[in-house]
Design brief:
alpha/beta, 5-stranded mixed beta sheet, 26% strand, globular, binds zinc ion
Length: 250
């Protein structure tokens, strides 16, 4: 059940563009239909500091060279300037310089698309994400043009094998949720009983479905993917609200 917090407040999910796809070929049992998958980012305050979990798409996804053209062809993206996180926050009088830090779940373009719009924010990543940054392969789906030039200087890297208490007060625990992407992390807002689980599943509707050979190919580690989903199922049974990045926002 979603509760009100005192240390972490003003939690809000933003939809920053979406992609259009038919996951029938990737997920066993999924209906053969084209659907929209929103790219979400999470805003919250901790002790009046503004923080983000991921950044969604931004329009620069259309200007990132051949990689983005192929990505857009396989996974059509819809995003206009009004959908960009930085613009949506500005409408609430939150300038990008007020964002103290950004926790990145992983480096796929629908999660880091807006990163360049927050040039003063600290960037929190896992060791697994750092190793992806240092040794990118094509299948990692990391677009260099979406990454800031001073990423190395601004990154704070955590080993997330054990949960990380980011603020030292137990209000936000970073959790390791590998499988979909190397070093993928989620955030548990303990006071709110709310776990943001990034892309550990595309949609809770399919949490019990296994993946087709294509779907497995699209994961970094399918065994880890299944183990992560088992842990997330246990969290749901323990009455935690789990939110994946591409679910419809209610
Ligand atoms: Zn992803």
């Amino acid at each position: 059940m979603h509760k009100i917090g005192t240390k972490i407040t003003d939690v809000k999910i933003y939809v920053c563009g979406y992609c259009v796809n038919n996951l029938h070929r990737a997920i066993k049992g999924a209906r053969n239909e084209t659907r929209q998958f929103p790219a979400t980012a999470v805003f919250f305050r901790h002790d009046d500091d503004c923080w983000l979990f991921d950044t969604g798409y931004a329009t620069r996804i259309f200007k990132s060279g051949w990689q983005s053209r192929i990505y857009h062809w396989l996974n059509p993206v819809v995003c206009d300037a009004e959908n960009e996180l930085v613009r949506q926050l500005a409408k609430r009088n939150i300038p990008s310089c007020d964002v103290k830090g950004i926790i990145l779940s992983h480096l796929h373009p629908d999660h880091i698309g807006g990163l360049l719009d927050f040039p003063q924010s600290r960037i929190i990543i896992s060791e697994g994400v750092l190793s992806t940054l240092q040794k990118r392969t094509l299948s990692d789906l990391v677009f260099k043009s979406l990454l800031p030039n001073d990423m190395d200087r601004r990154c704070e890297v955590f080993s997330c094998v054990e949960d990380v208490d980011l603020f030292g007060d137990g209000s936000l625990m970073i959790k390791d949720i590998p499988g979909h992407a190397k070093g993928q992390i989620g955030i548990l807002l303990t006071e709110h009983n709310l776990f943001f689980a990034a892309d550990s599943c595309w949609n809770s509707e399919w949490i019990n479905n296994s993946l087709t050979p294509l779907g497995r190919f699209l994961q970094n580690d399918y065994t880890a993917y299944l183990e992560t989903l088992q842990k997330i199922q246990k969290m749901r049974e323990d009455d935690l609200t789990v939110v994946f990045s591409h679910e419809e926002v209610q």
